[in-house]
Amino acid sequence: MNQNKALRWTLHYLPAIGLFAGFILLWQLAVSVFGIREYLLPGPYAVWQSMLSDEIPWLSHAWITGVEILGAFLLAGVAGVALGMAIAWSQGISRALTPFLVFVNTLPKVAIAPLFLMWLGYGILPNMLIGALIGFFPVVINTAVGLTQIDQDLVDLGRVFSAPKWKVFLKIRIPNAYPYILSALKVTATSAVVGAVVGEFVASQKGLGYVIITTQSSMNTPAAFAALVWISVLGLLLYGLVALLSRLLAPWAEEAPR
């Protein structure tokens, strides 16, 4: 039974595995056939060697960036859900908050990053806040939509049983919003990665973004690509955790292999 399940999962993800393998193969062929110099575009094998090299403390830098990404994701998720619930709870709050949130979301995050660093100094916290600022808006919108786009019969049923507004909100509206919130969190999982790395680009002495900046200045392109791969791995891990959470909280909204 377990073997059959493992086979189904393998077949389910086989297209993605094949796409990654094909991309790496074409990448290596392009570098080899056209003789592209390593400082311009290193081959996959050179990048792999750099990832395993002791020249750069990869685990230390990956840990710093991972903490920043996770912190940004949690901040964006908590703030986004709370604001989305406030918007759905009251039309007055919605009219007050929505224009302000749209204004904040349209601000150029790269321009805000130096201000955060000036106010808060160097460290993990400014990069977390930048990542959270980039990723919170989809959570706000999806949470509000999920709480309001609901079958009116369910709301009427709660009223028939004289359920107070807060109980209808807790027992009916919030479960209905699970797929919307979890879908937004998947987007935020990738946005948090971008935000954390942007913060490291602006000013940082640790982290994978810092590695990219320093290795580019020394023309160590394989190491820069290796840092990009590590960043992608962290993003994939966080996305996978959110996908797993989606299967646990809202399995009806997930398409799992059967």
UniProtKB/TrEMBL annotation:
<keyword id="KW-0813">Transport</keyword>
<feature type="transmembrane region" description="Helical">
    <location>
        <begin position="12"/>
        <end position="36"/>
    </location>
</feature>
<keyword id="KW-0472">Membrane</keyword>
<protein>
    <submittedName>
        <fullName>ABC transporter permease</fullName>
    </submittedName>
</protein>
<feature type="transmembrane region" description="Helical">
    <location>
        <begin position="177"/>
        <end position="203"/>
    </location>
</feature>
<keyword id="KW-1133">Transmembrane helix</keyword>
<feature type="transmembrane region" description="Helical">
    <location>
        <begin position="100"/>
        <end position="122"/>
    </location>
</feature>
<keyword id="KW-0812">Transmembrane</keyword>
<dbReference type="Pfam" id="PF00528">
    <property type="entry name" value="BPD_transp_1"/>
</dbReference>
<feature type="transmembrane region" description="Helical">
    <location>
        <begin position="223"/>
        <end position="250"/>
    </location>
</feature>
<feature type="transmembrane region" description="Helical">
    <location>
        <begin position="56"/>
        <end position="88"/>
    </location>
</feature>
<feature type="transmembrane region" description="Helical">
    <location>
        <begin position="128"/>
        <end position="147"/>
    </location>
</feature>
<dbReference type="InterPro" id="IPR000515">
    <property type="entry name" value="MetI-like"/>
</dbReference>
<dbReference type="InterPro" id="IPR035906">
    <property type="entry name" value="MetI-like_sf"/>
</dbReference>
<feature type="domain" description="ABC transmembrane type-1">
    <location>
        <begin position="62"/>
        <end position="246"/>
    </location>
</feature>
<dbReference type="GO" id="GO:0005886">
    <property type="term" value="C:plasma membrane"/>
</dbReference>
<dbReference type="GO" id="GO:0055085">
    <property type="term" value="P:transmembrane transport"/>
</dbReference>
<keyword id="KW-1003">Cell membrane</keyword>
<comment type="similarity">
    <text>Belongs to the binding-protein-dependent transport system permease family.</text>
</comment>
